[in-house]
Design goal:
172 residues; mainly alpha; 2 domains; three-stranded antiparallel beta sheet; 6 helices; elongated
Length: 172
């Protein structure tokens, strides 16, 4: 499961981020940030390549550019170029993005599971209207443009109030 990969990467990078926030030695910061950049940033870098290959740049490209620039510039500063290192910004950005992607993927998977459960409630057949009569047809045989009769009793099992059936029919 991909979302557990994000969570695992988050915890590892968070553990490495703490010393990045507390230490000041440029070589130590470089070493820790390199691990965070490669291990934690890999899903975003790989996603950016995929988005660019498909010519649909999106969030992965944005994150990849941000972490690559922060890492590259900070590395130059760590090895002598005048400027300010952004290793802690790099580390915290990767941590936040990993956690955010984990939460997003978990939410999407929960919604997908709910849709599958809802699909199980579909009746096995539909009542197709043909010349004033109805004919029961398996759902797989429905075509665009078919007129379907929806019987209130088939979708209103156990409703206590009349408006419940309206909501359920509206969802169809």
């Amino acid at each position: 499961m991909m979302h557990y990969n994000y969570l695992q990467r988050f915890w590892v990078c968070l553990a490495l981020t703490i010393p990045v926030l507390l230490l000041a030695n440029p070589l130590t910061l470089f070493a820790l940030s390199t691990i965070i950049f490669i291990y934690g940033g890999w899903p975003f870098l790989r996603g950016a390549v995929h988005e660019l290959q498909n010519r649909i740049p999106g969030m992965m490209v944005l994150i990849a550019v941000a972490i690559t620039v922060a890492y590259g510039y900070s590395t130059l500063v760590a090895f002598g170029v005048p400027g300010t290192m952004f290793y802690w910004e790099l580390a915290t950005l990767i941590d936040i993005m990993l956690l955010g992607h984990y939460i997003e993927m978990r939410s999407v998977m929960g919604a997908s599971k709910a849709l599958h459960e809802l699909a199980k409630l579909m009746p096995p057949h539909a009542h197709v209207l043909l010349d004033g009569t109805t004919k029961d047809v398996p759902l797989e045989q429905l075509k665009i443009g078919d007129r379907v009769l929806v019987r209130r009793t088939e979708f209103n099992e156990g409703a206590a109030e009349p408006w419940h059936s309206c909501l359920k029919l509206f969802a169809i």
